[in-house]
Amino acid sequence: MSTTFETVANIIAETCDIPRENITPESHAIDDLGIDSLDFLDIAFAIDKAFGIKLPLESWTQEVNEGKATTEQYFVLKNLVARIDELIAAKSA
Amino acid sequence: MRLEYFQMIDKVLELDLEARTLRTANTVPDESPIFEGHFPGHPLLPGVLLFEIMAQTSGMLALRLHNYDRMAFLASVDKGKLRTFVTPGQVIEVFSRLEHDGSGYARLKAEGRVEGKLVCNADITLKTMPFPAPELRGYLLSTAKRIGMPMGDAPAAGEGACQESLTHV
């Protein structure tokens, strides 16, 4: 998996005190890792800082609430990492 | 300060939009029912109110930077330190700096000083969202006016509906 995943996994492990070995690309941040919205703000802050991006949490949440997206699309880690990579690419484009 | 009304900020000393910082002055009242219990014979400003002062200064900065189109609610206080007693009559200068403006949240660093001495500091996370009620926005605009927040050409006070909702605080 990408270094992006390693960075994100380490951030989650450190922020939420979750054993690193429990965090896989298939992990769902909410359902599997039990991360709540407040903890996810800390994670988002660390991700934003680490990659120099701004995770669009508000629009993701809105899409999920409106049934236009599933939580899996944004909060399964391999998908989250893919979104981060897209944001990094968009930033440098 | 009007502690019983949670009006913690007395006045703005300096706003720097480019550096994204705000400095406020806040005088602890000589008398308050709070001191009757905290503590008899040894009145101290409760530590939670020192966090509230830092949170409100951070919130007013976030609101100003967002031109009062979003409300900011306290979400978390990290690395909070209460370094010394703060007593009636003392003036607390609070400095807050926006560290990161995220999507739906803001992270700030804040500190309070009395006569130059650091008395408290914390990392403040605010959850930001559209105002849930127009009267709340009016109240915050009114508060900004009361504390002398420089509004420049950006304030929402020019928007009729909100200006009409201003109430004197």
Automatic annotation (TrEMBL), chain A:
<comment type="pathway">
    <text>Glycolipid biosynthesis; KDO(2)-lipid A biosynthesis.</text>
</comment>
<dbReference type="InterPro" id="IPR036736">
    <property type="entry name" value="ACP-like_sf"/>
</dbReference>
<keyword id="KW-0597">Phosphoprotein</keyword>
<keyword id="KW-0444">Lipid biosynthesis</keyword>
<keyword id="KW-0596">Phosphopantetheine</keyword>
<dbReference type="InterPro" id="IPR006162">
    <property type="entry name" value="Ppantetheine_attach_site"/>
</dbReference>
<feature type="domain" description="Carrier">
    <location>
        <begin position="2"/>
        <end position="88"/>
    </location>
</feature>
<dbReference type="InterPro" id="IPR009081">
    <property type="entry name" value="PP-bd_ACP"/>
</dbReference>
<dbReference type="InterPro" id="IPR003231">
    <property type="entry name" value="ACP"/>
</dbReference>
<dbReference type="Pfam" id="PF00550">
    <property type="entry name" value="PP-binding"/>
</dbReference>
<keyword id="KW-0443">Lipid metabolism</keyword>
<keyword id="KW-0276">Fatty acid metabolism</keyword>
<protein>
    <recommendedName>
        <fullName>Acyl carrier protein AcpXL</fullName>
    </recommendedName>
</protein>
<keyword id="KW-0275">Fatty acid biosynthesis</keyword>
TrEMBL record, chain B:
<protein>
    <submittedName>
        <fullName>Beta-hydroxyacyl-ACP dehydratase</fullName>
    </submittedName>
</protein>
<keyword id="KW-0456">Lyase</keyword>
<dbReference type="InterPro" id="IPR013114">
    <property type="entry name" value="FabA_FabZ"/>
</dbReference>
<dbReference type="InterPro" id="IPR029069">
    <property type="entry name" value="HotDog_dom_sf"/>
</dbReference>
<dbReference type="Pfam" id="PF07977">
    <property type="entry name" value="FabA"/>
</dbReference>
